[in-house]
Amino acid sequence: INVANFRFSELSAEEINSPMKKLAFRNADLTDESFNELLKLLRYTPELLQAEFDDCALDGVGDFQPSESDIVRELGKVETLIIRRLHIPRFYSFNDLRSVYSLLEKVKRITVENSKVFLVPCEFSQRLRSLEFLDLSENLMVEEYLRNSACEGAWPSLQTLILSQNYLKSIERTGEILLTLKNLTDLDISRNSFRPMPDTCRWPPKMRFLNLSSTGIWAVKMCIPQTLEVLDVSNNNLDSFSLFLPRLRELYISRNKLKTLPDGSLFPVLLVMKIRENALSTFSKDQLGSFPKLETLEAGDNHFICSCELLSFTLGQPALSQVLPDWPDSYLCNSSPRLRGQRVQEARPSVL
Hints:
This protein is of the alpha/beta class.
């Protein structure tokens, strides 16, 4: 719909008291002026919780004047704002959104995805006092501007930050910049191109979840925070993993180059490990037994050598499906030649 020329028809507040919870615009054309008019809807939607703009175009420079929209000071009960693939033709003339700072002070969840965001001004970040979740995936963020966005006092309530597929290059600098976020627990910096990982890094003190998948890393070092409960390093170039993580409960390490399972003693409370599509050739009762609390292991689509040792172990463990949710279909023999392509569960070597 084209709402570029939208003008709101005044109604008395008694006439409409909409129970609407979510308002979504898709493939809509907007202007600065029509945005101001849309804000007038807020008086008639007191139960609105979520506003969404997908694949919209804004022909303007962010010169919003909410104060002229019948003195709209805030977004009512709106807690979630989602913007995906917003096209702004005059992108490089865009304002700093100072006029809408007060509108967003009570919003808890903001997603601005694939919309050429390269900076959240420090003053704007400081005004987002209630923000708990921020997703800036597929944008243009680099460390220099991230430092300004995550300045002292920025996003004081933020718990989850997603910076997937931006232009970050240094894990060390990224962690240091985010030290200002005292309540941050979940950080997704996947699909960035990081340089080699340093030996040590500094991170926010409450970090529990870290996603480093698809970042091109070759090794994991003590740079990884010891406070983690969930770590995702899938789709990288790791050929080993020997880092002690005392609180780790879930490890996602599929699509790497590991030839053996990590030593279970490194993860005393690990419950879940996904290590599909690596270069594993076997695993044994002793290896599995080294994980004191492991409940779920996904290790399918590896290059299993169907040796007597592996087959005797799998035949002697009828309850494997309780630990291996992808058993037996994803466990195929890669050798010997006679058994290649057969399911490990059904493979029977010759007597010799």
